[in-house]
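Quick note —
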Amino acid sequence: MVNNKKVVVVMPAYNASRTLEKTYNEIPRDLVDEVILVDDRSQDNTSELAKDLGVDHIITHQKNKGYGGNQKSCYNKALEIGADIVIMVHPDYQYTPKLIPSMCYIIANDLYQVVLGSRILGKGALKGGMPIYKYIANRILTLTQNLLMNQKLSEYHTGYRAFSREVLESIDFDVNSDDFVFDNQMLAQICFAGYEIAEVTCPTKYFDEASSINFKRSSVYGIGVLWTSLAYRIQKIGLTKFRIFRRPVR
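Predicted structure written out below.
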């Protein structure tokens, strides 16, 4: 716990058996109270390995629900077990869990309610092997999103995120897409609800075992990102209302 706040790590997993152990072993269990792994119907032994490693809660989807659907299970379970601070860590070891303490203390000390591990602050992205086309797309999308949403984030596309319980209870993440655009919809909801977002510099690693999406799916994701930001702007100026920005009923 940190400042008497329960810390829970959630791990949305799919075919993560080759990197799960290395990722899990870097989680600071002296600070993290419980770990949740949601296996989105992997084709390998991810769930069995998680059990052997001692992961506290393992949820196995009976059918593949997608990246966004996986996260919904993660966050709902975290809220169910009383988490005050929730950190999403991808089990593919693209992001090191060694930043968990820094991210937790920012939230625990009520400085910010949301913290992102940014690959763009500093030189972490290209140094870590991010493909150049993804880097360029990241920069173009982020610039456009900042303009549409009146924000100043260095990137919206990192998968390393920490949230307070208050934030997760204040947005209706269950209505978001089950696909990769879930991440951006969630950030748009958070900004729409009036929360400020902190960022910390995060090194990242791109390698064969790390998860990635192909160019076609990246293009679909990019279109979804732009639509989400545009919807944010449209509702902000009062032209219409979108379901993702409604208050949740929990």
